[in-house]
Amino acid sequence: MAELVFFSGTMDCGKSTLALQMDHNHRARGRAGLIFTRFDRAGQSVLSSRLGLSTPAVEVSDGLDLWDVVVERRTGGHRVDYVICDEAQFYSPAQVEQLARLVDEMDVDVFAFGITSDFRTELFPGSRRLIELADKVQVLQVEALCWCGRRATHNARVVDGVMVVEGEQVVVGDTEAAAPGVVEYEVLCRRHYMRRMNSRAAHAAALSADVLPLELDACPLP
Ligand SMILES: [Zn+2]
I need a surface site. Which of 43, 47, 185, 188 has the fewest CB within 10 A? Predict the structure, then answer.
């Protein structure tokens, strides 16, 4: 029986590396798969991991019908036993429903990898639909760490060094109109997410004479 499995985690927890490993394991067993991704850090139509591995992938553009892609592959004489979906948080709910249909009607295994919530702590629509429809949701156990050493559970957006909690859900590349400034992301524990204390703010606070380094956790809420 095919399954729809959603592997969720924060950034930096090795999702893409695991996606590549999953593809390798199934290939090694003689199965044939198809890899989808969207907005990979390395560019279009590639699935890359921070460890330096990469493989070609189908870019999931707006409106791409994932069901149709698999049907076309099979019509062209290619086997598709499983599908790997990286950056699945960026897929639309309709695309996630197409994945569920591949599982149910074509017996294709779907392994989706993604972040559950955005920098505002709100669920991505694609991740929400995956949680609603998946046979299994698995939280990845490779732990990303906050600067304080605790398990990082939240993704923070940092613009010009300052953490922000408002703005467009997705800022890709140089869409400067959506968020002027240098946009970066940092994983934090909930405690430091809630206090809006990214590593730079913590470092600045530690250097400040007003705040003792050991009392960072006692800093007032913004
Ligand atoms: Zn922390």
Answer: 43
